[in-house]
Amino acid sequence: MNKRLSEGLWGYLFILPQSLGLLVFALIPLVSAFTLSLMKWDGFGAKQFVGFRNFAEQFASEDFRLSLFNTLWYTVLVVPSGILLAILVAVALNKVRGKVIYRLFYYMPVVTGSIAVSMVWLWLLNSEFGVINVYLKQWFGIEGPNWLTDRAMVIPSIALLSVWWGLGGNMVLFLAGLQGISASYYEAAQIDGAGKFRQFMHITLPLLSPTTFFATIMTIIGSFQVFDQSFVMTGGGPAKASYTMVYHIYQLAFVEFTFGKSAAAAVLLFILILSLTLVQMYTSKRWVHYGD
After folding, report:
1. 13 by DSSP, 3-state: which?
2. d(Cα 117, Cα 160) in Å, to the nearest integer?
3. What stretches of 114-230 adopt beta strand conformation (E)?
4. 215 with 170: CB under 8 angstroms?
5. Residue 39 β-bridge partners
6. Distance between CA atoms of 242 and 152, rounded to whole angstroms?
7. What is the dihedral of CA 18, 23, 27, 32, to 10 degrees?
8. What does the pLDDT profile of the chain (292 residues) look like in tens digits?
9. Given CA atoms 116, 118, 124, 129 in this order, what sign does their dihedral have?
10. Distance between terminal CA atoms of the chain?
11. What are the transmembrane regions (predicted)?
């Protein structure tokens, strides 16, 4: 056996565990979901092929349309604010003294379980004795809103939690991106008389665009999969004001036991996320700038 063939076999051997994991835990379940979306099944009896009827029922379902609207509204609130805040925090911590400690504190929520985070924020956002409303009244003399029981405030409240929760993860990405920017760019800008703001707008942001692109895609994907916060904090309420697409999938599968409809809704969510990702990939050519 020649050396080149031997190296190739060792390479395939090393990627075999990851390939098996991808096949068993991703590709096979994906195909199974597509197949199940064409069936009528309650989880116990025999499966009945119904074609695209499940998809047609989802498009006609008021609950599906409501969940789509709530998820889109949540995404609009979380993605721009989360990305912008992560960039600003990363820039502020990039060269500050004691930055390791600050990074640790900002990143700690990321490794905290979603249920624990939701329970803490459920207490913070309580309209009667929550910490936020208490301090709003003591410091500013105003009555805080009903964060989780007002239909107009529940999605912004969950979005506030999610921005705080995901800040550390995006901050680490942007810190890595900042460290990859050569100091020579800033030195040249200072010689030309550019101030800090112009350096940020014309050097930092353009050279961070690959990191921004990646963080935006991952944040959008995560925002469309929001479930834990809504499930723990509001149960989809009030009056389904926090009823998201993944909550809708859960409701169909594990409450109503209509697994075919649930799979159809999951496939539609997959197509939506895939479409948005492809659009971002296409439009990234216009604004993502890779350094030399």
Report:
1. helix
2. 12
3. none
4. yes
5. 49
6. 10
7. -150
8. 566 767 778 888 889 998 999 999 889 998 999 999 999 999 888 999 999 999 999 999 999 999 999 999 999 999 999 999 999 999 998 888 877 888 888 889 898 889 999 999 999 999 888 899 999 888 988 888 999 999 999 999 999 999 999 999 999 999 999 988 888 989 899 988 888 899 999 999 999 999 999 999 999 999 999 999 999 999 999 999 999 999 999 999 999 999 999 999 999 999 999 999 999 999 988 888 876 5
9. negative
10. 41
11. 12-34, 72-93, 105-124, 163-186, 207-227, 247-279
The beta-strand segments (E) located in the chain are 39-40, 48-49
**CB of 133 within 8 A of CB of 220?**
no
CB 47 within 8 A of CB 132: no
Half-sphere exposure of 31 (CA within 13 A, CB side): 6
Q: Report cis status (omega within 30 of 0) of the bond before 17.
A: no
How far apart are the C-alpha atoms of 56 and 5, rounded to whole Å? 52
What are the start-end ranges of the E strands in 155-289? Answer: none
Strand, coil or helix: 39: strand
What is the C-alpha separation between 271 and 267, in angstroms, rounded?
6
Shortest CA distance to 171 belongs to which of 97, 74, 93? Answer: 93
The beta-strand segments (E) located in 70-221 are: none
Q: For residues 64 and 58, is the Cβ–Cβ distance under 8 A?
A: yes
Take residue 130 and report the two structure tokens written for it.
């929550």
Closest CA to 52 of 262, 243, 258, 264: 264
Going along the chain from its start, the domains and CATH numbers come out as 53-287 (1.10.3720.10)
Q: Coil, helix or strand for 48?
A: strand
